[in-house]
Design brief:
Blueprint lengths: L18 H23 L7 H8 L6 E3 L16 E8 L2 E8 L10 H17 L3 E7 L8 H17 L5 E10 L4 H4 L3 E5 L4 E3 L3 H8 L5 H5 L1 H7 L5 E3 L2 H12 L19 H13 L10 H8 L6 E3 L7 E8 L2 E8 L10 H16 L4 E7 L6 H5 L2 H14 L4 E10 H6 L9 E4 L4 E3 L3 H8 L1 H9 L4 H16 L3 H5 L5 E2 L5 H11 L19
Parallel strand pairs: 3-4, 4-5, 5-6, 5-7, 6-8, 11-12, 12-13, 13-14, 13-15, 14-16
Antiparallel strand pairs: 1-2, 2-3, 9-10, 10-11
Helix pairs in contact: 3-4, 10-11, 12-14, 16-18
The protein binds hexanoyl-coenzyme A.
């Protein structure tokens, strides 16, 4: 077939050029821009925005939107400081924008704001996840209020998209000023160990205002936000690691709140039987001996694959994604390795937001319980354990997704209730034999229930400690066991550790048709908690 070209129209760049020349001219501009970007980024140990996009997306899948928008292609072309478009990850479409630090420090002005806002609109219309690759000095100072307003519009659109499509932010350079709230409103933040920073006010401003001298690292480095502040959800060793984690995370998520999470063909493997059997001896019987809950999770899920979220923050609780017979689930579990798995303000917020996310996107929640209670003391009360702990109850009590809970060893007091108990709405609840469930531990309970008796014994000069030991033993035998839970219907069955994987799979199969009560644009948002 011969292709007849329509009549030539002169280009702004070169009125005498043919169409082909004009395309070549644009290609040349793009190549120059990329060379400039490489010269700026590579010495700093960073990839260019385009290199990042090609590593994130499936090969050749990127389709750019408005490649030359925001730049004067006729004269001194620099381009906008953001690249927008869409592509696929493991064959599934995503919308993506990558800030280009080589253009005016990746800052956001009118053109960049317009491009990002348009992309967010496209993502909402197509109902596809949004991934932001951030590397920017924030609002462009020269653009004044226009830049601030564009951020405001992005914030608003991000909130509208919250709970409709998954939103991921990768911090691959600076993210400064109020601009940090753009990723903070998204579902997951991934930071690279070197080069990424997030702070509302930079070291210079801090010094000018308060006199405090602080490094970029200590003020907003990736370790700070992963270990301490809880702002970030993953600490990546490199940009490649950050991009790979984003791809892995997405493989567990549906593209939008109307879709079911992706499910994978599953062939049973012998190793899973071995893993299940190993569970019988993995968890020490004594409830005071620690063990690694992540190991337990790996013994329960398909191929031992568990993608942990916020691994470094509030390590007394573990959250993350895995599959059971090919179906993605969100897992919330106490971690006896850290602080004996007690609940505190940080653990409560970490688990709450994760439960809210899973519920917004129809991902079933598995809760594995081994919790001695809330961490007592003034530090926690002052930090607002009442206000912040309530978020966890709110998250579980409002969740509509299938919820299956297993009490592995112990579950005391309020912590028993908030960790996915039946009364908060879990669909199926199990316990391992010997599970300890009670209002409080034996020592505390005896001190309260037998206060007078113990005081009288003390005044009579009797052996108070022997009496206390006797009372503790009686309380433990009579009250610290699953009997009351079973007869009250709190547990649907007592299962052995090696039966747990199958019990979870059977429960989820039963719950596949559960009404998720979705009757609008979204179930609910995933607001920052
Ligand atoms: C305009 C900016 C800029 C900004 C950086 N640049 N930040 N231009 N507005 N906000 C420009 C620099 O002038 C420079 O231009 C280029 O980007 C690269 O910056 P460098 O400083 O040379 O790079 P580096 O040493 O790597 O330091 C990067 C940086 C630093 C840490 C980001 O530039 C910095 O601290 N910038 C200010 C960050 C900040 O406070 N932003 C807050 C803005 S307020 P040339 O031409 O020399 O290459 C905000 C509020 C949002 O974002 C509103 C929400 C409601």
């Amino acid at each position: 077939m011969t292709l007849t070209l329509p009549p030539r129209t002169p280009s702004a760049a070169d009125p005498d050029s043919s169409r082909e020349d004009y395309v070549n001219h644009l290609d040349e501009l793009a190549q120059q821009a990329e060379a400039r970007a490489a010269a700026r980024q590579h010495p700093a140990g960073k990839l260019t925005a385009r290199e990042r996009l090609s590593q994130l997306l499936d090969p050749m899948s990127f389709q750019e939107i408005g490649q030359f928008a925001g730049g004067n292609v006729g004269k001194d072309f620099l381009g906008a400081a953001v690249i927008t478009g869409h592509g696929t990850i493991n064959g599934r479409r995503v919308a993506v924008y990558a800030q280009d630090f080589s253009v005016r420090g990746g800052t956001l002005g009118r053109a960049e704001g317009d491009k990002i806002l348009h992309l967010l609109d496209v993502a909402l219309e197509m109902k596809i996840p949004i991934i932001a690759l951030l590397d920017s000095g924030g609002a462009r100072i020269q653009d004044g209020v226009v830049a601030l307003t564009q951020y405001g519009r992005i914030f608003r659109k991000t909130c509208q998209a919250s709970g409709v499509v998954p939103q991921l932010s990768l911090i691959l350079g600076p993210c400064a000023g109020g601009a940090v709230y753009s990723p903070a409103l998204t579902d997951f933040i991934i930071m690279t160990r070197d080069n990424s920073h997030m702070f509302v006010t930079g070291p210079d401003v801090v010094k000018a205002v308060t006199g405090e001298v602080v490094s970029f690292e200590d003020l907003g480095g990736a370790e700070l936000h992963n270990f301490q502040s809880g702002v970030a959800h993953y600490l990546a060793d490199s940009e490649a690691d950050a991009l790979e984690y984003a791809r892995a995370l997405l493989s567990y998520l549906p593209s939008n709140c109307e879709e079911r999470p992706p499910s994978y063909a599953y062939e049973p493997v012998a190793q899973e039987l071995v893993n299940s059997a190993a569970l019988d001896s993995l968890v020490p019987a004594s409830s005071r001996q620690p063990y690694d809950m992540v190991e337990v999770i790996r013994h329960l899920v398909d191929h031992g694959e568990f993608v942990e979220v916020q691994e470094m923050f509030a390590r007394n609780i573990v959250v993350g994604f895995a599959c059971l017979e090919g179906t993605p689930v969100g897992i919330v579990a106490n971690q006896p390795m850290f602080d004996a798995g007690t609940l505190d303000v940080d653990a409560s917020e970490k688990a709450s937001r994760f439960v809210r996310f899973c519920d917004a996107f129809g991902i079933p929640i598995i809760t594995l319980v081994d919790v001695p209670g809330y961490r007592p003391g003034t530090e926690q009360e002052q930090a607002g354990i009442i206000r912040r702990g309530a978020k966890m109850i709110f998250a579980y009590a409002n969740a509509q997704v299938p919820m299956v809970t297993v009490v592995l060893r112990k579950a005391y007091g309020g912590a028993y209730i908030v960790m996915g108990s039946k009364s908060l709405g879990a669909d199926m609840n199990f316990a391992w034999p010997g599970a300890e469930v009670a209002v409080m531990g034996a020592d505390g309970a005896v001190s309260i229930m037998h206060r007078r008796e113990l005081k009288a014994a003390e005044e009579a000069g009797e052996d108070v400690e022997a009496l206390r030991a006797q009372l503790v033993q009686r309380y433990t035998e009579e009250s610290v066991n699953p009997n009351l839970c079973v007869s009250e219907g709190e547990f649907d069955a007592i299962i052995t550790p090696s039966q747990t994987r199958q019990a979870l799979i059977d429960s989820l199969a039963l719950l596949t048709t559960k009404d998720l009560q979705y009757d609008g644009k979204k179930r609910h948002d995933n607001g920052p908690l």
